[in-house]
Amino acid sequence: MTDELDDLKAALHRATPVADDKARARAMAQAMKNFDRLQGSAEEMRSKADPPVQAGFLAGVFSMLNSLKSRPLLAATTSAAALIAGFVVFLPIAGQLPVAPSKPAAPGVAREAAPADAEARKTVDETAAPKPAPAPAAPEAKVAEPQEADTTVAPQAELALPDVRGRVANGGALGLSADSAAPAITGNMTVYLEAEPAPPPVANTEAYANSPVNPVHVTAEDPVSTFSIDVDTASYAVVRSSLMAGMLPDADSVRVEEMVNYFPYNYPAPEAGQAFRPTVTVMQTPWNKETRLVHIGIQGAMPAATRPPLNLVFLIDTSGSMEDANKLPLLKQSLALMLPQLHPEDQVAIVAYAGSAGLVLPPTAASDKTAILAALDNLDAGGSTAGAEGIALAYQVAEGMKAKGEVSRVLLATDGDFNVGIDDPADLSKMIEKQRETGTYLSVLGFGRGNLDDATMQALAQNGNGTASYIDTLNEARKVLVDQLTGALYPIADNVKIQVEWNPATVAEYRLIGYETRALNREDFNNDKVDAGDIGAGTQVTAIYEITPPGSPALLNDPLRYGAAPATGDSKELGFLRLRSVKPGETQSTILETPIAPETAAPSPDALFAVAIAGFGQKLRGAKYLGDWGWDQMIALATSAKGEDAFGYRAEAVNLMRLAESLSAR
Question: What's this model's pTM, rounded to 2 decimal places?
């Protein structure tokens, strides 16, 4: 130790050489060599040093040297290698320094140095600073006042070493923790350390199920439009989530019919014995005075006073991608909201899946809420996503719960990120098609953003005779699983298809607004083996066509030179509406038909609000057919048609329109 002190004193009295590039390289190499040697014997030095030194200064120096060794230097006003070498040489005498115990000095208060070290500090300060700029004078050393025996703080040496200001990970200066007792480092040397790179942003892997916007059809060439009904609402909630996050939604995430069907409407109720009732309204198109809109509202029958028992299997994604607060934690809260709505005779089972699937809760009476909630609370996120395996097990459990006259449904809660086993939406669809023959329904609740696989969830819901919803808030969970629970879980009509035959004499062109992913071939309408959507008790379905009369300046297509002559009959009907459906538990479909008259009753506020939302959805998708109709007109129409709005859903939609207008103006 004496030899090293003598070497240090001799070095301090030598003239400071001018460091060229080669000298800097040699100094750096030697410093690293010394560092590696000292690091290997660190335990020995720590054992000889006072405890405060072990906890503070040594840790700080080693942290600094590690930083310098692993990061390239960006800039320096003097040789950083000399700085490192100085620390390495100084390290052996650290154990002789009087330092404070582990308690740090108060913020903003300098630590006090012992008088015995003042001269050494001054000497180091004068010789370490580069020329010609002189080093600042060291502050006068002071002796700390004695304290009570149990709180005595020993004086601490303050080294006048160069000022090293580095940008380091976690905001720590040179890796020294806030509670370390390391000496203060002052002076005039500046070394900039490269920041530890921030972790790369998580890639957005969201995938949406959508198709190009429906085109305009020439009635004389293609008079029949056929599609499956859709009561899903996921798209509206995803759009709202995007807008509330301060960004316009991905155009592919916008399915106009799901935005329209998100809202409850008060359409005329069906007659006794009927599962549903269609109501047709013809009105002026708000965005084109030369065309008209045909609004079709279908009201499902209200639920009976008594309903059949429900066998419900919660199929819960507990993979690692579900750990965010708006995924598994929100999922647990959402399902907990639902439990009070179930009847004592209902049964609940829980299947969870991650790397593999397992039965978390066997079939349990819905009245045993304590057991159900405990099983939910014990779920944690982790592992990969074996979705197909979980689905197979859930159907197996549901099959074992069945009894005659009861309804069985699997309720899948996931972000859709299946990555183990079957993960292709087409292959999953085939799997679900086989499972739905058992009579068990499958509905999907989507959670989270960033890796939301909407395409997979849509494939599952559409082929599982169920619905797809997106839960972004607890309020949305209440809407779907409390306010609309009956309609979501108890179907009154399966395989519901709509077909409209347009009259070429009164309608030259037409287009269906939305339902791009629900299109069916004309011949599918009469084929009961072709699956379609379902209507739940008390729910509504809305479809809107834009039609153009013959001779209108709004026509978008020229007549064919050799095409068939337009119809010249006396009929004034605009078209003919057919609805085909299958009663739950049966296999033979029935059909309901009604003509579309050219004149109807004035549009209700419900119909006008649905049109405003249809315009909103089209605007978000690109507004191909809206012309000059803008945000102001849309907002005015929606505001005038809000009606009673008991739950505030329509007022929220108007606010979202205003928000979208602001975001689109950026």
Answer: 0.70
